[in-house]
Amino acid sequence: MIKDKSTVEIGDDYEIALENYLKKLVTDGKFPGTTKGLSTVHRQQKYFDERGHHILADVTIENRFDPNDEEFSSAIVFECKYHSKSRGNANIALYRAFRSTLDQFFPRGSKGFLVSTNGFSKATIEDARADKIGLMVFDPVNLTHNIIVRRRINDRYSEREALYSVLLGER
């Protein structure tokens, strides 16, 4: 039962669910920016910046040109935020901290996704669009996800407007 777990355990379970979900999508060739056999999914992988500082990334997909390459050519980095309905949406401060981490530890050839259970604040959505960073609402129970489209919403795309309400946590 979820009430018997600490917030750390709940967060770890959320990361594990996302990791397993992404592994299936990558294996099936269904996650954009990945190649079957050349992309690997990791959880709590340690990465270093040029000064020797390190982070543990929640979940990453490393892409290689050759399966025998030791170094990855690009990475897709996922920062997970499991918030209860009462806590609300992932806010702009969380987003800015994630963007800073991407800039420091993954300066080239990488993409990032901030992942939440309940959506994002309007400011977070707008900043993510401007920075071309993905936002994902991931449901670990039903194993479904919605990813923000990086372009601004306009009247021609009702599907994008529907996603906007999902990202805000309204659905």
Draw up the topology in text:
Elements: H1 7-27, E1 39-48, E2 54-63, E3 74-81, H2 92-105, E4 110-116, H3 122-131, E5 134-139, E6 144-147, H4 158-167
Parallel strand pairs: 3-4, 4-5
Antiparallel strand pairs: 1-2, 2-3, 5-6
Which runs of at least 5 residues are low in confidence (pLDDT < 50)?
Answer: 153-162
| Strand order in the largest sheet | 1-2-3-4-5-6
Strand content: 25-35%
Structural class designation? alpha/beta
Order of helices and strands: HEEEHEHEEH
Number of beta strands: 6
Count up the helices: 4
Give a written overview of the molecule.
The protein is α/β, with parallel strands linked by helices and 171 residues long. The chain contains four helices and six strands. A six-stranded mixed beta sheet has the order 1-2-3-4-5-6, sandwiched between helices. About 6% of the residues have low confidence.
